[in-house]
Amino acid sequence: MEWVVMSLLPFVENRGGIPVAIMSGIDPLTAWIISSSLSFLGGFVIYILLGRLEPVLRKSPLSPLFNRVVDRVREKGRRYIERFGGFALFFLVAIPFPGSGAYTGALFAYLFKISLKATVTGLLTGVLVSGLFILTASVSLMALI
C-alpha cells in the first residue's frame, strides 16, 4: 500500500503511485483511478488551506515578506492568467514533469485567484490526463520486462 502514500506526496503524486501500484500487482485501471483521485484530493485540500491561511499570514510577523512576494507574483502573472486562464492550470498539472502536478497547480490557482470551479476542473482533468500518460508508459514498460 506504499503506492497509496506515494500518490498523496507532493511532487510524487500519481507519477510515482501508478508505476509502483502496477509493479505491486494492482490492476492498472484501479491504480490509475485511485492514484489520480488521491493526487487530486491532495491538491484540492492544499488549495482550500492556502485560501484559509492567507488572512492569517497577511497579519503575521512575516506579513511584509509574504505580502511582497505574493503581490509581486500576482502582478507579474496577471496578464498570462487573463490570457490563458484555466487552460494554464490544466497544462501545468497535465504535463507529467517533476515539479508539476496537483500540488503545484493548487499553489498556482491560489496565487492567481482562479475560481474554485475552474480550479477543480483544471486540477481534476489535469491529474486524469497526467495519470493516463503515466499509466500508458508504465503498462508499456511492464510489457517489455
Task: Please give a structural write-up.
With 145 residues, the protein is mostly helical. The protein has one domain (2-144). The protein is built from 7 helices and no strands. The protein is elongated, with a radius of gyration of 17 Å. 34% of the residues are buried. The mean pLDDT is 90.
What topology emerges from the helices and strands here?
Blueprint: H1 2-8, H2 13-23, H3 28-58, H4 63-84, H5 86-94, H6 102-111, H7 116-144
Brief summary:
With 145 residues, the protein is an all-alpha fold. It has helices at 2-8, 13-23, 28-58, 63-84, 86-94, 102-111, 116-144. It has one domain.
Key traits:
mainly alpha
Mean pLDDT: 90
The main β sheet shows up as: none
C-alpha Rg (nearest Å):
17 Å
What structural class is derived from the secondary structure elements?
A: mainly alpha
Residue share in β-strands: under 5%
Uncertain residue ranges: none
Number of strands: 0
The count of domains is 1
SS element count, helices: 7
Taken in chain order, the helices and strands follow as HHHHHHH
